[in-house]
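Working notes for the structural subgroup meeting. M.R. asked for a predicted model of this chain before we commit to crystallization trials. I am recording the input and output together here so anyone reviewing the notebook later can reproduce the run.

Input as submitted:
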Amino acid sequence: MYDVVILVEEELSGPDAEQLVQLYGGKPEPVRFHVVVPCEDAQAQVEASLAGMAGTELFGAAGPRYVPRANDEIHQAADEAQKAVDAAATAALERSVARLRSLDREAEGIITRRPPVDELVDYIQRVHGQEVVVLTRPHVIAELLHVDWSAQARRHLGVPVLHLLEQHQDGPTA
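Returned structure, recorded in token form:
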């Protein structure tokens, strides 16, 4: 079995799934795809947003104060937001895996709140992956500076890393 780990920025579209299957269709051995879908850490997002908006008004000049009711409400809002984020990421993963399976390919995957390349490094070891495909929208500046996911993955992995640009149903992303 030839295992390919796919790090996606967004849900795998039908044309993207077809492109991947065609790309690996000539392998003499069966190919299994492993999809990694990153999702946001809602707690960190809520805390960063509140700190940015409130500044010293929330924390005062003496530093943070414990405000039980406000703190509980913040944590409850973050928990609810995380459930929604996780549900959306799980649904995107399920649809991505289903698209690959509909093309008669073995596929599975995970969602992660960890930094995507960190998860990729661990996941490829767990599944004994032989190759990585990073599928993203164009990120010209990040690619130019070699800080995009594919460049990071190449620095941390000992396997080939292919960077593909996501396609819409109507064709490639402009």
